[in-house]
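Researcher: We plan to redesign the surface later, but first we want a full-length starting point. Tokens attached.
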């Protein structure tokens, strides 16, 4: 962790390493970037529980888990800290993940890739999601940054899954998926189908159900992908059933914040969480968000989890060419 801490201090962070038992101190601390290192099913020093919450509505049949309440105290508290987790079980996994943060920002193609999947919420919602996804991909991009889009909604070509896997292998600064997810796949794209080296995607947003769990018997798609050698630096995904009225606002706010010069992954995650709470947003996404009851919006604070280092630069618009990327133990790092 020493190399990570040195790098982050060079980038202007005040790095503090805390014992997991001291996480409660953060509830009253100034806003910061917080990285939790460990796993709810690990042993010894790497055992780090998460928070379990009862279902907020009938369509979510089981409890969901997430790290918001671990740091903030409860789901009732609005997001102040940018919280991420490295779901590692031992020294070997930690060192493998840390290595990608200590290298300079990889030279992924300067492209943002959008994939809108089949939400499976009925033809009206599916069509609305398709139109919203197209709107997001058509935004004005900074010079030197391009976007591509693939759609499984409403009808997907037979070869589309292979095309998306090829995209992952080719690389991207950011991959945004909005659609239907299961613990081990999105639209039939399973973890075992991903490139063996994890591909060359820097940051991933999976705005869908289930793909971001990390406390179940079997690892989710996001957990497996993050822990793959050469996997993404960070993945934002949900641990249970997410809501199609909220997912577009979350994904759009993440991208907007990621386009700010020098933005960290944590900055973008905080913007995404605040969009669910009612922060300023595109009128269409804001109207869609208001269709979801407040208790469901609060639940999404804990439902969506960042797997990866929140202090890592997103890399869409780099403010300082010297930026690299990094990670720590259970830590709070405040710029």
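Model: Full-length starting sequence:
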């Amino acid at each position: 962790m020493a190399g990570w801490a040195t790098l982050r201090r060079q980038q202007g962070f005040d790095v503090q390493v805390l014992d997991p038992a001291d996480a409660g101190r953060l509830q009253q601390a100034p806003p910061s970037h917080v990285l939790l290192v460990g796993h709810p099913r690990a042993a010894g020093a790497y055992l780090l529980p998460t928070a379990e919450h009862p279902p907020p509505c009938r369509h979510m049949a089981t409890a969901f888990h997430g790290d918001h309440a671990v740091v903030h105290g409860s789901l009732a508290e609005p997001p102040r800290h940018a919280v991420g987790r490295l779901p590692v079980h031992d020294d070997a996994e930690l060192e493998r993940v840390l290595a990608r943060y200590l290298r300079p920002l990889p030279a992924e193609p300067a492209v943002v890739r959008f994939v809108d999947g089949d939400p499976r919420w009925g033809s009206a919602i599916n069509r609305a999601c398709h139109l919203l996804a197209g709107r997001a991909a058509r935004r004005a991009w900074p010079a030197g940054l391009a976007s591509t889009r693939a759609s499984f909604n409403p009808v997907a070509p037979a070869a589309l899954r292979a095309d998306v896997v090829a995209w992952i292998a080719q690389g991207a600064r950011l991959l945004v998926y909005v659609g239907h997810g299961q613990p081990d796949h999105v639209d039939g794209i399973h973890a075992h189908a991903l490139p063996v080296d994890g591909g060359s995607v820097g940051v991933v947003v999976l705005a869908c159900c289930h793909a971001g769990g990390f406390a179940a018997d079997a690892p989710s798609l996001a957990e497996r992908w993050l822990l793959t050698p050469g996997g993404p630096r960070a993945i934002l995904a949900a641990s249970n059933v997410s809501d199609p009225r909220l997912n577009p606002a979350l994904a759009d706010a993440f991208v907007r914040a990621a386009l700010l010069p020098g933005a960290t992954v944590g900055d973008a995650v905080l913007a995404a969480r605040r969009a669910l709470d009612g922060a300023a947003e595109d009128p269409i996404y804001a109207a869609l968000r208001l269709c979801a009851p407040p208790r469901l919006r609060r639940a999404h604070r804990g439902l969506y989890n960042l797997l990866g280092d929140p202090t890592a630069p997103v890399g869409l618009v780099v403010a300082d060419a010297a930026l690299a990327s990094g990670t720590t133990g259970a830590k709070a790092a405040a710029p």
